[in-house]
Amino acid sequence: MVAIAVSLSRVAAALVLVVLNGFFVASEFAFVRIRATSVDQLVEDGKAGAETLQEVMTNLDDYLAATQLGITLASLGLGWIGEPAVAALIEPVLGPLLPEGLVHLVAFAIGFSFITFLHVVFGELAPKTIAIAQAERISLLLAPPMKLSYLIFSPGIAVFNGTANAFTSLIGVPPASESDETLEEREIRRVLARAGEAGHVDESEVAMIEGVFELDD
């Protein structure tokens, strides 16, 4: 009975880790999706959480590192706690049905599959889809708790970022920023073409801007 209670508590802990993983995934995609200009407008409108979100956008690379660290820790914890807990609950059920040598193997496979399903669907795909579809609302909602997570992770982030930047510099790749919103000419042309096709920009305006690029060439 005690063993079952322990396994159930571990399954509950695994579910918490799935939620945490989803929190970090949603934060990462929402922060990348929303534009700095949109955040400035939210601050001007006095939206709750907008000032914290603006702080996040100012230090976006560090906050993205915090989300990645959180995702990694939650994923590792989920694998460490979740699979053995589910397997321990399943083994007594499988005992009378399978040869003794197969019980643990089958229980492990079922536990692994179940935890993987929860992780991928509820810890990755669903949060990503929600964050992309509702970037503004999710960013405002998650910025305050993400700030707390960033403060907790900041010592580790400094070490990891410093080590990664040193390594990439050694192989001739300078550190790059994920917050850089600068578009190259061909990207601007592509965006303009799509906007023109969708009717968001007049064809005459598209042609005028294309002409500016042609003059520059």
TrEMBL record:
<dbReference type="Pfam" id="PF01595">
    <property type="entry name" value="CNNM"/>
</dbReference>
<feature type="transmembrane region" description="Helical">
    <location>
        <begin position="63"/>
        <end position="82"/>
    </location>
</feature>
<dbReference type="InterPro" id="IPR002550">
    <property type="entry name" value="CNNM"/>
</dbReference>
<feature type="transmembrane region" description="Helical">
    <location>
        <begin position="12"/>
        <end position="32"/>
    </location>
</feature>
<keyword id="KW-0812">Transmembrane</keyword>
<keyword id="KW-0472">Membrane</keyword>
<dbReference type="InterPro" id="IPR051676">
    <property type="entry name" value="UPF0053_domain"/>
</dbReference>
<keyword id="KW-1133">Transmembrane helix</keyword>
<feature type="transmembrane region" description="Helical">
    <location>
        <begin position="102"/>
        <end position="122"/>
    </location>
</feature>
<protein>
    <recommendedName>
        <fullName>CNNM transmembrane domain-containing protein</fullName>
    </recommendedName>
</protein>
<feature type="domain" description="CNNM transmembrane">
    <location>
        <begin position="3"/>
        <end position="205"/>
    </location>
</feature>
